[in-house]
Specification:
Layout (H helix, E strand, L loop, with lengths): L2 H13 L2 H8 L3 H27 L8 H16 L8 H17 L7 H20 L19 E2 L2 E2 L3 H23 L2 H11 L1 H6 L4 H27 L9 H14 L4 H13 L8 H18 L19
Antiparallel strand pairs: 1-2
Length: 318
Amino acid sequence: MKKPLFAFLLFFALMAAAPPVLEHFCANGRYWVDVLNSVGLYLVLALSLNVILGYAGMFNMGHAVFYAVGAYTTAILNTQCHWPVLLTLPAAGLAAAFFALVAARPIIHLRGDYLLIVTIGMVEIVRIALVNDVFGLTGGANGIFGIERIKLFGFRLTTPTHYFYLIWAFAAVSVTLFTLLENSRFGRALRYLKEDEVAAAGSGINVARYKLAAFVLGAGWAGICGTLFAAKMTIISPESFNFWESVVLFMIVILGGSGSIPGVILGAFLVAGLPELFRSFENARQLVFGLALMVMMIVRPQGLLPPRPRRYAVRVQP
């Protein structure tokens, strides 16, 4: 087993001890387990965004849209069609991937700030559609209530600890799959076109097709994560998927190190978990946290744990 993958698996094995330790030594241990659940969800979402932003270099500030599509797909299928939540997982991923395919195809040629602005507009369009209760399915501003809890082998998940193991198991699977993707031919092609699209096209890489594939893959994985969120909360509304959620995901990837899986893991803990330690300073914590991020971007713009430069052996023919 390669060292990075082994280190990731060791990290997640140690994370499995977190719930009993927190519940035993902390008075509000269940609350901190729930905070780790949020960190886990943000980690999976940031990993899916990392494929689009970190590998392919596309500035996507609308990633929460795909998260919302997955969550609403699960909510509608469960509450109106009475599908078990686990059976909605593939449907949520496919719905988010299809939405990304339709939405990204006409804009995939855009670069930099232009793509950024379009994806911001996409968030607002979807939010308005959800609030206006399109086709009478989304529940308007109130959202959808009564989503069932996940049931595994006859055991219903109800507590934060139950969901902790499910969410972090899914996070471990995500890290493993994206590590394999990073080292695959597809991952190397994405990094190549991120560095120089013209050179990549000249080498025979279909730039538009690879970008679209990265967009669809990241969106589909975010949609699956939406299922976990919907089942954990049992209620969803448009406010759960606003523009701020996309900003948080963007910050996690950029702060940790764009294109770096260890960086995304660190960024998820810093952006989604660290502010909870300063909840007693409610009036000042967002200001201090924002200033810290600004300083970090100036001092270390490549992120805290940027990807290491890769070296490839070149064989010289005699």
